[in-house]
Amino acid sequence: MKPVTVRVPAKVNLQLGVGPLRDDGYHDLVNVFHAVSLFDEVTAVPADAPSVTVEAAPDAQVAIQNVPLDGGNLAMRAARLLAERAGVEPNVELRIRKAIPVAGGMAGGSADAAAALLACARLWKADLLLPALPELGAEIGSDVPFALLGESAIGLGRGERLTPLETSGTFHWVFATADGGLSTPAVYAECDRLREARGERVPWPPAYDELAKALAAGDARALGAALANDLQPAALSLRPSLRRTLDAGRELGALGSLVSGSGPTTAFLAESAEHAAGLAAALAGAGVAKQVVRAYGPVPGATVV
Ligand code: C5P
């Protein structure tokens, strides 16, 4: 058995419509996912017992100290679930190399889980389970099925019921990372709290046809105008300093800006690769981010390399 390495992308939510809280503790979503070219790599190595190691990718200043190395690691949970279904021992060393911010709202943990599922399925020659990976992934986290699929897609339900969205051309992004992560459950809870405090009725479900049209046409201006995230007020309430970062991006000419998922990473859409380079340099110079990185999308989901 030879080690298997899988490369897996981060995501940004182009529209994150958050519906009412359900009885199972999740929210119904209208979630437009877009996979971008920030990649983690997970290598599955045959071993005598399960273990996980994590390192930052050479050029990425990813703070890895908060990634759990025990049973709470999403990649290891995914490997154990797959082993159980495949009827094998979960004897694998998972080597995770991270470029996706940790707890940053870019689904890094879900990406690693998706990569572990694919890498272990190949390692254990569990080909019959390949079509079941999205379903297994959904048991680990709502964003895992999308990390397997990649490109652009709309996710309904808790985000796991996916339909691919047609996309033309390439969109150029700048991401600003922030110190420390935000807990996804805490951001959803803050969203509920703010809505209740303000007596907001959520119009549900939101339309997403303008966004879908902009994606299909490859129209960055229209896409920038259509970006929307219902979790943004909650992320800003928990992390008020993000307001400055969003304002700076807008003033520096981004076509659109928003908090990525539950944050605290912020995303800025540029007109072209050159515009993204200029915007990234200006944002870095403004001193409103921990780190500024460029990426493009859409890109494929988890892939064996
Ligand atoms: O599915 P995942 O483990 O990624 O979700 C993390 C947390 O985010 C959930 O426990 C829940 O608090 C919140 N969440 C939600 N509604 C969703 C997805 C996630 O409330 N559709």
Structural summary, described in words:
- Pathway: Isoprenoid biosynthesis; isopentenyl diphosphate biosynthesis via DXP pathway; isopentenyl diphosphate from 1-deoxy-D-xylulose 5-phosphate: step 3/6.
- Helices cover 34% and strands 29% of the residues.
- It starts with a strand and ends with a strand.
- The longest helix has 16 residues, at 108-123.
- It is built from 10 helices and 12 strands.
- It has 305 residues and is α+β, with helices and mostly antiparallel strands.
- A hairpin with a 6-residue loop joins strand 9 (256-259) and strand 10.
- Strands 1, 2, 3, 4, 5, 6, 8 and 12 form an 8-stranded mixed β-sheet that branches. Strands 9-10-7-11 form a 4-stranded antiparallel β-sheet, with helices on both faces.
- Helix 1 runs parallel beside helix 2 (108-123) and helix 1 packs across helix 3.
- The structure holds cytidine-5'-monophosphate (C5P).
- Residues 26-27, 29, 141-143, 158-159, 184-185, 188 line the site of cytidine-5'-monophosphate.
In short:
It contains ten helices and twelve strands.
Quick one: how many beta strands? 12
First-last Cα distance:
16 Å
The largest pleated sheet is described as: 8 strands, mixed
Shape, principal axes of CA atoms: globular
Specify Rg, calculated over alpha carbons: 19 Å
CATH fold node name of the largest domain: Ribosomal Protein S5, domain 2
At the first level of CATH, the class of the largest domain is Alpha Beta
Name every ligand kind in the structure: cytidine-5'-monophosphate
Helix content class: 25-40%
Order of helices and strands: EEEHEHHHEEEHHHEHHEEHEE
* Uncertain runs: none
